[in-house]
Design a protein that fits this description.
- This protein is an all-alpha fold.
- The protein has a single domain, classed as Rna Polymerase Sigma Factor, Chain: A (Orthogonal Bundle), CATH 1.10.1740.10.
- It contains 4 helices and no strands.
Length: 96
């Protein structure tokens, strides 16, 4: 499925300053992020917004990745959390 060793090497390369390593990671997982967010929110626009949030979180927090799980597991958790938070905000907006 996902080659964990390749992901770990790309993460290490990005942390060492190689921006293209981050681009390769994102290219590999962006569709999975989108479709997970899409399944949770039910529409394209919300999923696109969540993808942008997730990419920013990954970029800013990748240095905290502990290499104890697969990178995909870490991304999945971030996407899940951001999607739930987005749905909560959306439901609060509907009330007001």
């Amino acid at each position: 499925m996902h080659n964990t060793d390749d992901d770990f090497k790309l993460i290490e390369n990005f942390i060492d300053g190689n921006e293209s390593a981050f681009n390769r990671l994102i290219y590999k997982y962006q569709d999975k992020i989108y479709w997970h967010a899409r399944r949770m929110t039910g529409n394209h626009l919300d999923a696109d917004e969540i993808v942008q949030e997730v990419l920013l979180v990954i970029y800013n927090k990748i240095k905290t990745f502990k290499f104890k799980s697969s990178f995909y597991t870490w991304i999945y958790t971030i996407t899940n959390t951001r999607s739930i938070n987005y749905l909560k905000k959306r439901s609060v907006k509907k009330i007001f």
